[in-house]
Amino acid sequence: MPLTDDQIQHLFRFTEKKSVRSYDLQIELVDHLASRIEEEMEADKGMSFEKALEKVYKGFGLFGFAKVLQEKQTQLQRAARKIWWQEIGDFFTWPKVVLLALLVSVFWTLTQLFPLDLLYIGFLAAYIVAGLVLLTRTVRYKKARKELLLLKFGGNHLSSVVFFYQLFVVSMSDNVSAVGFCIVATVGVLIKTASFQLYRKVKDKAFTLYPEAFA
Amino acid sequence: MKSNQQLFRGTLTTIVLKLLREEGKMYGYEITKKVKEQSGGSINLTEGALYPALHKLEADGLVQVSIENIGNRPRKYYTLTKEGKKEVTHKLEELSVFLTQMQTLLNQKPGIILPS
């Protein structure tokens, strides 16, 4: 006998009480609990919904949903790193390698036309502006009404911040060179592009799988 | 004889991938039931083991997910990706080699003979 809508909503509230607030993981756990409860209550007609839930929840072990939640977060971060590195790697394969070569040529040409310290400061400013522009573009994506682990852990990569700090330090030093600038600038563009691509892919996946979370 | 659950922990990925290859599309609880059914009740795949394994397979790009509404609730289904289908074959070959090696090793020791 299938559970009622009220009982299903009770299961969603149950997962939330057990510290699973993200909708994407809740769906999976609620379906699992519901399927098992339905089976238990079918096998023992006298068993109440609450008793069946208590029995089924024990199957998740001493720590309940904590292990599943922790592992999900870890795997989402792994997947994000994998996508991010794939995006970087794409620039070293056809056809994006042509873009990479063009980028390096443009930066090299700039080093022949302008003083290096000016170029570093200019690139730093452009990097900040690009970051703000990308931020406004990503903010324009519809905000999720429900929390999703996919967005919380699957769409971020901290390298951008680290690189920005290193670039800032380099731009303040005296030992800059034309080759150095080309490398730093090219790497900066790759990192920004990879970060944006990662966020876009993850957001698209979230829209496709969980449209009700954005309604 | 009930099987030692620890021995099966290392083969969980292979078991799940093989089931998905056979069945096409499955959801979490369905996988635990199938494993129990096909092992004659001797392997009890716990929720604490299954879902981390599925999430890892998804992060590795070997399975993909889809959500379907089954009436009173949404359900997450898992299917193999193209890479996942290749990986099943590879994993089964690995396991077969391992079992052959174990058989050889254990049958070489006096007094330790695997039941045929």
The amount of beta strand of chain A, in percent, is: under 5%
Describe the oligomeric state of these chains in a short phrase: heterodimer
Structural class category of chain A: mainly alpha
Please give the alpha-carbon distance between the first and last residues of chain A.
Answer: 30 Å
Rg of chain B, nearest Å: 16 Å
Task: Describe the strand arrangement of the main beta sheet of chain B, using strand numbers.
Answer: 1-3-2
Number of strands of chain A: 0
Textual characterization of the structure:
The complex is a heterodimer of chains A (215) and B (116). Chain A is mainly α. Helix content of chain A is 76%, strand content 0%. Chain A is built from nine helices and no strands. Chain A has helices at residues 5-17, 23-43, 49-58, 66-90, 96-113, 116-139, 149-154, 159-172, 178-209. In chain A, helix 1 packs across helix 2 and helix 2 (23-43) crosses helix 3. The radius of gyration of chain A is 25 Å and the shape is elongated. The mean pLDDT of chain A is 87. Chain B is of the alpha+beta class and 116 residues long. Chain B has helices at residues 5-9, 12-23, 28-38, 47-59, 82-108, and strands at residues 25-27, 63-69, 74-80. Chain B has a three-stranded antiparallel sheet with strand order 1-3-2. In chain B, a hairpin with a 4-residue loop joins strand 2 (63-69) and strand 3. Chain B is globular and about 55 Å long. Chain A binds chain B through residues 2-5, 8, 27-28, 30-32, 34-36, 59-61, 63, 67-68, 71-72, 75-76, 78-79, 82, 209-210, 212, and chain B through 27-29, 46-48, 51-52, 55-56, 58-61, 65-67, 70-76.
